[in-house]
Specification:
CATH topology of the largest domain: Beta-lactamase
Distance between the termini: 57 Å
Structural class: alpha+beta
Number of domains: 3
Oligomer: single chain
CATH class of the largest domain: Alpha Beta
Radius of gyration: 23 Å
Helix content: 10-25%
Number of strands: 33
CATH architecture of the largest domain: 3-Layer(aba) Sandwich
Strand content: 25-35%
Largest sheet: 10 strands, antiparallel
């Protein structure tokens, strides 16, 4: 933790490799994963002060898109409308520990024909946005992306930071672990290839150098971090909470820019509170939550927060719905103390009761209105009236092989002893069979708790459609990261 550019608390503990008994130090290389995104955007702004001059370069990587292409800044702000390629890879049969290299990435990205939304109108986290940014910058500069980053790292005081694209191993042999102290730890297996999206490896000393650089240049309005953290908006002028590889939000009532990262065996988080000139960096080579650790550090630094009022009691939020714009299954569960658990994105969100007919957490709010439940997600620039799922018997005549032309992928639904299962397959292999969970008439869930990337897609929503004779003919597949893909019965 740093304040006014000086370290006020620092600790390294545990082992970089428990088998070889190599202890962690502040010089040990570490996979910072998606924290990479801000450095990719720093390279973009450093090499091209007006990023719009690269807008035309996007077309080379997305030759089949049938609508308006995203701009470079749409990629940098996660407003491109592209589906996340780590999620889409699971639809193409990718196995959790399968190999996914540059060739697979290029082929999957190039197959894109449709977007989830008009570029600049919504937010959706998408790793390939930053892979494309890194590729475009490298092409235009005539350098490998690792070469583009190297002088930046030197300027930022990150002397040992590198682009370590192959996730199987780090040059110094540092290992990431899955498991717990109770169940035991095991080395995490990763065989994917990251670049501008999450490929940087850096030590704690490197990250301290970055935070010191941020503080030292805080008054330079044209400086890199000032440009990275400047306010951004959607096309309609609504302020956005993410831009140039940084989240914008508040923590303990204070303004914050931040980003986290994760891969199996690795978790990281860094934040900067500009008004207090405070930064926190947390790096784990295991799967504990670094954000919670960062909050504890900040709570130790600042005055304790005033006790909160007891949660209000009101009629519970319960039920299953479809969000009309995304077509995603949205489930609400009431929790003790008047809180609500919302299932919509990649993982559940817990919302506190904010009034008799309102529950919210940060930019997400649920309202009970005379028309029904309204969900507002300011971070996504999304506001919608949820559509309750119809009551009625669950039809089980959904077996078959359904094919998606855009991905050249298939969804196979079969009955095994009376239990319906589904699996995806395509260019990346044969995915695992998973038991389907009924949600409503012709709406099912296909859980996906693990994926190539640490951040798994979560539940896939399967919405089956029928022909005039009432026979199942198609299914629309989607999750928050990759939605609106049509599979037709073959």
């Amino acid at each position: 933790m740093l304040r006014r550019g000086e370290v006020v608390a620092q600790r390294s503990w545990g082992f970089a490799d428990v088998e070889r008994r190599i202890a962690f130090t502040d010089r040990t290389l570490f996979r910072i994963c998606s924290i990479t995104k801000q450095f990719t955007c720093a390279a973009l702004l450093d090499q091209f002060p007006d990023p719009s001059e690269l807008d035309r370069d996007v077309a080379r990587h997305l030759p089949l898109v049938e609508t308006a292409l995203p701009r470079i800044v749409d990629l940098a702000h996660n407003q491109s409308g592209l589906r996340d390629y780590w999620a889409a890879a699971m639809l193409c049969g990718a196995l959790v520990e399968g190999v996914f290299g540059p060739a697979e990435a290029r082929a999957l990205i190039a197959r894109t024909r449709s977007l989830q939304f008009e570029p600049g109108s919504r937010f959706s986290y998408c790793n390939q946005n930053f892979r494309l940014l890194g590729d475009v910058v490298a092409e235009r500069t005539g350098q490998d992306f690792a070469q583009v980053l190297r002088p930046l790292f030197q300027r930022f005081g990150m002397d040992s930071a590198i682009l370590a694209a192959d996730t199987q191993m780090l040059p110094d042999g540092t290992v990431g672990y899955e498991g717990t102290a109770e169940s035991g730890f095991r080395p995490a297996v990763n065989r994917i290839h990251w670049t501008g999206d999450a490929g940087v490896a850096a030590s704690l000393a490197d990250m301290i150098g970055w935070e010191r650089f941020i503080d030292a240049t805080r008054d330079d309005t044209d400086g890199i971090y000032a440009r990275l953290s400047a306010p951004v908006s959607f096309n309609d002028g609504t302020p956005a909470r993410y831009g140039f590889g940084l989240g914008r939000g508040r923590i303990l009532g204070r303004a914050m820019t931040s980003h986290g990262g994760g891969l199996r065996g690795w978790r990281s988080f860094r934040c900067n509170l500009p008004e207090e000139r405070v930064s926190v960096v947390v790096l784990f080579n295991h799967m504990a939550d670094p954000f919670l650790a960062a909050i504890e550090l900040l709570q130790a630094l600042f005055e304790p927060a005033a006790p909160t009022e007891p949660a209000m009691q009101a009629m519970p939020f319960e039920g299953s719905y479809l969000e009309p714009e995304t077509g995603l299954l949205t489930r609400l569960e009431s929790l003790p103390g008047g809180r609500v658990r919302l299932h919509f994105t990649t993982s559940p969100e817990t919302l506190d009761r904010a009034g008799p007919d309102c529950a919210g957490a940060g930019p997400t709010v649920l309202w009970r209105t005379p028309e029904g439940i309204r969900m507002e997600r300011a971070g996504d620039n999304l506001s919608s009236l949820l559509t309750p799922l119809e009551d009625g018997p669950i039809a089980r005549d959904i077996e078959g092989v359904f094919r998606c032309t855009e991905l050249d992928a298939a969804l196979t639904v079969v009955s095994a002893g009376g239990v319906l299962h589904g699996a995806f397959s395509g260019a990346l292999g044969l995915g695992l069979m998973v038991a389907l969970l009924p949600a409503g008439p012709d709406v099912w869930r296909l859980p996906c708790p693990r994926a190539l990337d640490y951040s798994a897609p979560g539940d896939w929503t399967l919405r089956f459609g029928r022909d005039a004779a009432g026979r199942v003919a198609r299914v629309t597949v989607g999750c928050w990261l990759a939605r609106g893909l049509d599979f037709v019965l073959s």
